């Protein structure tokens, strides 16, 4: 059975950093494109970053470079390093397998709150 379990969220002050993790099980992690998608309160879903099977990272054109996605295929873990956080980064962050593909699967998410 497929599982995606996010962790690492929490409360952080503006300017701080967090590293999110997503532990995958029940499928061949290394063969899937993986992504992070977030949803801020009262807003729609926003693609944060993605990484292909070869480890090449993808970001929206609007991304500022504060976030870095990575993966450890040996450990079946997806990461998101987030730096210089601001209040607009407050959201529920989801790990997603195969975003927009036929095998798309979402984790439950981990809450990130940026507040002083």
How many beta-strand segments?
Answer: 11
Low-confidence stretches: none
Overall form: globular
Structural class of the secondary elements? mainly beta
**Helical content band:** under 10%
Radius of gyration: 13 Å
The portion of residues forming beta strands comes to over 45%
Overall average residue pLDDT:
95
Topology as H/E string?
Answer: EEEEEEEEEEE
Total helical elements: 0
Task: Let me know the largest β-sheet.
Answer: 7 strands, mixed
Distance separating the two termini? 40 Å
Task: Give a structural overview.
The chain is mainly beta. Helices cover about 0% and strands about 50% of the residues. It has no helices and eleven strands. The protein has strands at about 5, 10, 20-25, 35-40, 45-50, 55-60, 65-70, 75-80, 90-95, 105, 110-115. Strands 2, 4, 5, 6, 9, 10 and 11 form a seven-stranded mixed sheet that branches. Strands 1-3-8-7 form a four-stranded antiparallel sheet, with no helix packed on it. Strand 7 (about 65-70) and strand 8 (about 75-80) form a beta hairpin. It is globular.
Key words describing this protein structure:
mainly beta, 0% helix, seven-stranded mixed β-sheet, 116 residues, globular, four-stranded antiparallel β-sheet
Question: What layout of secondary structure does this protein have?
Answer:
Elements lengths: L2 E5 L2 E3 L5 E8 L8 E6 L5 E7 L5 E2 L8 E6 L4 E6 L8 E7 L7 E2 L3 E5 L2
Parallel strand pairs: 2-11
Antiparallel strand pairs: 1-3, 3-8, 4-5, 4-9, 5-6, 7-8, 9-10, 9-11
């Amino acid at each position: 059975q497929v599982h995606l379990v996010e962790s690492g969220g929490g409360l952080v002050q503006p300017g701080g950093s967090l590293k999110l993790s997503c532990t995958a099980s029940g499928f061949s992690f290394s063969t899937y494109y993986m992504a992070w998608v977030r949803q801020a309160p009262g807003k729609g879903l926003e693609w944060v970053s993605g990484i292909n099977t070869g480890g090449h990272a993808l970001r929206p054109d609007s991304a500022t470079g504060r976030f870095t996605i990575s993966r450890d295929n040996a450990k079946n873990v997806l990461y998101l390093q987030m730096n210089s956080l601001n209040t607009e980064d407050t959201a529920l962050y989801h790990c997603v397998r195969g975003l927009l593909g036929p095998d798309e699967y979402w984790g439950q998410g981990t809450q990130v709150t940026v507040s002083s």
